[in-house]
């Protein structure tokens, strides 16, 4: 009898615990977010399917170039479509060549989505940017839960399915990767500026993307992981170190620009 009572008590405890969990409201802010970990290695051998139905790995898509990596799901009724549209709108203001200097990879974390969903998303983008129709530098990927979870965990990107409203809770952000697949930084939301994207790609390019002025501009800004953007540390120097520090810094920048101009003029004369 005592054994039966123990079994009944254990069963009742399990039922009560399940009921408590079920009664707890879904907290999207606790379930979704980004635990930024710059320098983390993204597993480039992860295999997805692109919108043409081909099986590809991230390593094949990067092919030695930096990347803009976008976690989305293509059936998202909220911000995902706007996120991709905002990205491609800003890329037109970035002085780098898509395909030659970097690639764009959007992967779905919804394992129920198929290449048909990715093609539908490309079709929507093509209506606004016709050049994307046959672009080999823009990749829209779907795949199993194991693939998207593996990449998302490496990025520190957290998401969860909300069964009540039948949608995913997730953050809106884009990541930049180095050519070797290391996370460089995140740009959060839809409000980042063309200069943020330009600097993020310059940073991700490890000296291989952008000219001297881009590299110099990167010296004048530092990435702020809390805001997901770049802060001008010339202004910071004025606030913290005073005018002398800022003048010394500006003098260095001016001298560097002068040397670069002289070098170019010398090359033109030859």
Describe this structure in words.
The protein folds into 2 domains: 182 residues, Glutaredoxin; 60 residues, no CATH class. The chain contains 10 helices and 12 strands. A 7-stranded mixed beta sheet has the order 3-2-6-5-4-9-10, with helices on both faces. Strands 1-7-8 form a 3-stranded antiparallel beta sheet. A two-stranded antiparallel sheet has the order 11-12. This is SCO family protein.
Key phrases:
single chain; 270 residues; alpha+beta; 2 domains; three-stranded antiparallel β-sheet; 10 helices
In short:
The chain crosses the membrane at residues 233-258. The chain is built from 10 helices and 12 strands.
Strand order across the biggest sheet? 3-2-6-5-4-9-10
What share of residues is helical?
A: 40-55%
Count of β-strands: 12
* Assembly category: single chain
Strand content: 15-25%
* CATH arch. level architecture of the largest domain: 3-Layer(aba) Sandwich
SSE order, as H and E?
A: HHEEEHEHEHEHEEEEHHEEHH
* CATH class category name of the largest domain: Alpha Beta
The CATH superfamily label of the largest domain reads Glutaredoxin
Assign the structural class, choosing from mainly alpha, mainly beta, alpha/beta, alpha+beta, or little secondary structure.
alpha+beta
Please, how many helices? 10
Q: Characterize the biggest β-sheet.
A: 7 strands, mixed
Residue windows where pLDDT falls under 50 for at least 5 positions = 4-9, 14-23, 207-225, 230-240
The pLDDT mean sits at: 77
| Overall body shape | globular
Give the radius of gyration.
24 Å
Please indicate the count of domains.
2
Question: The CATH topology of the largest domain, please?
Answer: Glutaredoxin
Q: How far is the N terminus from the C terminus? A: 101 Å
């Amino acid at each position: 009898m005592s054994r039966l009572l123990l079994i009944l008590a254990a069963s009742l405890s399990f039922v009560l615990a399940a009921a408590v969990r079920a009664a707890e409201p879904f907290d999207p802010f606790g379930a979704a977010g980004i635990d930024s970990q710059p320098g983390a290695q993204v597993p480039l051998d992860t295999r997805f399917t692109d919108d043409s139905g081909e099986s590809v790995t991230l390593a094949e898509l990067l092919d030695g170039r930096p990347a803009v990596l976008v976690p989305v799901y293509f059936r998202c009724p909220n911000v995902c479509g706007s996120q991709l549209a905002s990205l491609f709108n800003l890329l037109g203001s970035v002085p780098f060549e898509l395909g030659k200097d970097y690639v764009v990879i959007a992967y779905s974390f919804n394992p129920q989505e198929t290449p048909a969903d990715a093609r539908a998303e490309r079709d929507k983008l093509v209506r606004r940017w016709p050049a994307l129709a046959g672009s080999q530098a823009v990749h829209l990927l779907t795949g199993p839960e194991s693939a998207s979870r593996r990449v998302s965990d490496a990025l520190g990107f957290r998401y969860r399915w909300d069964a009540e409203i039948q949608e995913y809770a997730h953050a809106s952000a884009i990541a930049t990767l180095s050519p070797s697949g290391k996370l460089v930084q995140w740009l959060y939301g839809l409000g980042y500026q063309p200069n943020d994207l330009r600097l993020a790609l310059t940073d991700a390019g490890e000296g291989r993307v952008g000219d001297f002025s881009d590299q110099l501009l990167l010296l004048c800004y530092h990435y702020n992981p809390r805001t997901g953007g770049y802060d001008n540390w010339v202004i910071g120097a004025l606030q913290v170190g005073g005018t002398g520090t800022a003048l010394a810094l500006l003098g260095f920048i001016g001298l560097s620009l002068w040397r670069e101009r002289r070098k170019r003029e010398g090359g033109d004369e030859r």
